[in-house]
What we know:
Elements: E1 8-13, H1 18-34, E2 38-44, H2 46-57, E3 66-70, H3 92-102, H4 106-120, E4 124-130, H5 135-142, E5 146-151, H6 155-167, E6 171-172, E7 177-178, E8 181-182, E9 193-194, H7 200-203, H8 210-222, E10 228-230, H9 238-248, E11 252-254, H10 289-297, E12 304-308, H11 317-330, E13 334-338, H12 359-363, E14 367-371, H13 376-381, E15 385-390, H14 394-402, E16 407-409, H15 416-427, E17 430-432, H16 443-454, H17 461-478, H18 486-498
Parallel strand pairs: 1-2, 1-4, 2-3, 4-5, 5-10, 10-11, 12-13, 12-15, 13-14, 15-16, 16-17
Antiparallel strand pairs: 6-7, 8-9
Helix pairs in contact: 4-5, 5-8, 6-9, 6-15, 11-16, 14-17, 16-17
Amino acid sequence: MEQAPQTKHIIMLPFMGQGHIIPFLELAYNMLHHNHNLNITIVNTPLNINYLRSAIANRPSPSSQIHLKPLPFNSTDHGLPPNSENTDGLPLTQIIKLFHSSASLEPAFRLFIDEVVSSVGNSMVCIISDVFMGWANNVAKSFGVFNYTFTTGGAYGTAAYCSIWMNLPHRDLANGETYDEFAVPSFPESCRFSITQLHQFLRAADGNDEWSRFFKPQISLSLESSGWLCNTVEEIEPFGLEVLRNYVKLPVWCIGPLLPSIMLKNNSGLDTNPGVIGERTGKKPGIEAEKCIEWLDSHPIGSVLYISFGSQNTISEMQMMELAKGLEESKKPFIWVIRPPVGFDLKGEFRFEWLPAGFKDRIGKRGLIVHNWAPQLEILCHRSTGAFLSHCGWNSVMEGLSQGVPLIGWPLAAEQGYNSKMLVEEMGVCVVLARGVHSRITKEEASRVINVVLDEREGGKGEDMRKKAKEIGELIRASVEINKGSSFKAMNDFLTTIIK
Length: 500
Ligand code: UDP
């Protein structure tokens, strides 16, 4: 009689942020889709485990093979406000504390791995940890277990992010000089980066600052793992992947996009049935998906601008005011997810004083303002959505591009400046409107850029961007085709490698 294949155990450790937790969960589902004999445990802090619990419960087909393991964590021990276990809602100045606090999970994680290894022995195949949780590689090594690094970013953005933090190529520390333009190790000399693409903390980093003290060791440890998984598609980032492979000098599997399969059916711009995609994040949106879709249904195909700065970033009050005026002037329909501007409590109530007086009345049905959190996937899948003003967080980029939606970039943190550079220079699907929270924007410039990207006329920049975004969307959707797509094959190859 044929023996049933032995169940294999995988432990996953995302960093504590929505933009990391969501793709880790998708990765778990994706692996299970390829191999039913897996038992996957996602480890995190208690509140993040609660998010994951409700995200799993809300999925159309929750999986009994995904387990959740909370590790003890008290945010106040790390100088964070009570119950702060996620980048969401934390002001930028506190995020570094969250980064450093993540390493405090190591002893409890070690105990947990000890328990798993003692109970399942060599059917525990590997730990997949976030690039920011490099310490998991040390834990894996001490138990003789393989460790793989998962970067939730794209190839280009990840390579630039890691190489710049590790080498600080924008600085001459001996002379205290900072360069406006510079080359980045592992990138060709001709690919120049600008200081404006760097986050404010990175601009001033000297290798000994609190950000470098976190990123350098975590990235170094991740570079010692057995290979990297990257949430991208081989065909859409050929240059970025060449650079990333050159940088990490390890196998890199492109297993993206990690999106619900309904978004990857081969017809972009599909009208979604509300609730089909489901609430993946366990977060309550400021508007029901049904209402959003009803509103989108009342607007012409490709006419709506969707605006969101992701799960943790926000813009300044002054920028918000100018953007609102620019939206008014552009005359284009829009959905705008508004989070409190910089300096306000990110978990606080929405205030109309952040917008020009009478804005809502003048906009009427042309604009939909959503407080804090929107059903983003449903919006991006809708055929009325024609452009996405985004902070260029990688999940948002993949979500938009998978539906052939071009972008207006407003990078705010992390590797977003490099993502937007790549989207402009390599893909031609993005126009950058502003960078960071200090960049001065005017209503005229905002309105101009919105009109360029949403311009329906043939032969213009808008049409060119739409065409390119559509082609990339097709490549993304083709990559998951069963037995044929590059990401499908890469996932099979990865699983074959770990389950020898
Ligand atoms: N997101 C959402 N609704 C919102 C804002 C964000 O569903 O109103 C989701 C979005 O779809 C994406 C994630 O949150 O999956 C944000 O990840 P991303 O990498 O774009 O940015 P981050 O939040 O990590 O900066």
